[in-house]
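Review form for a predicted model. The reviewer records the input and the model, then writes brief findings.
Reviewer: anonymous (R2)
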Amino acid sequence: MIVKAVKIEPATAVKIFEKHNVLQEEVYAALNSGNPKFKKAGGNQYAAIGLSQSRHITVYFSYDEKTKEAEVETAYPSSKKQIKSYRKAR
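Model under review:
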């Protein structure tokens, strides 16, 4: 999957920071440069686990096939189980 653009609404950015202590920059890094592992979550929604500068981040997003744009719904630090799955898939 190719993600050319990542869109995070301001309200979503506030939510993921306040609830999960994840910065927007970590989400961008996880999806663009963190060698992410993608998984279909249903419909046009996907989950990705990627590596930001200091930790693994799980991101749920809607994906537009035509524009290759990901609209972030939520993001949080990955669990140990998710990290293990990520490392196994690499």
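Findings: Residues 61 and 77 are 15 Å apart (CA to CA).
Further findings: The longest strand covers residues 56-64.
Recommendation: see findings above.
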